[in-house]
Write a structure and sequence with these properties.
By secondary structure, the protein is mostly helical. The protein has a single domain, classed as Orthogonal Bundle (Helix Hairpins), CATH 1.10.287.3510. Helix content is about 80%, strand content about 0%. It is built from three helices and no strands. The protein is elongated and about 50 Å long.
């Protein structure tokens, strides 16, 4: 059995890597993958807590987070693809479409 503290430390490390990826990178795909990494880190912490408390509530939250992540992946990748077709770049600094 893996202790819950180890699961939570791993989850915190993955979430921190995701936050650093969002803050430091300029490539849209890398930022998108970092957001997905943060969602998976939250899922991992819910798994740890659900196993520790022997409850199904955490598993239900995990299911909803996976559904939201799948919907976010579909919508996000389609938006990234359409912006790439117009701008021909994946650099975030070049995206000023949503400004006035």
């Amino acid at each position: 059995m893996i202790p819950t503290t180890h699961v939570l430390i791993l989850s915190a490390a993955l979430f921190s890597i995701g936050v650093l990826g969002v803050m430091l990178r300029r490539n849209v795909i890398v930022i998108f993958m970092s957001i997905e990494l943060m969602l998976n880190a939250v899922n991992l912490s819910f798994v740890g807590f659900a196993r520790e408390m022997d409850s199904m509530t955490g598993v239900i939250f995990i299911f909803f987070i996976i559904v939201v992540a799948a919907a976010e992946a579909v919508v996000g990748l389609s938006i990234i693809l359409s912006i790439y077709r117009n701008r021909q770049t994946l650099n975030v600094d070049e995206y000023n479409l949503l400004k006035w």
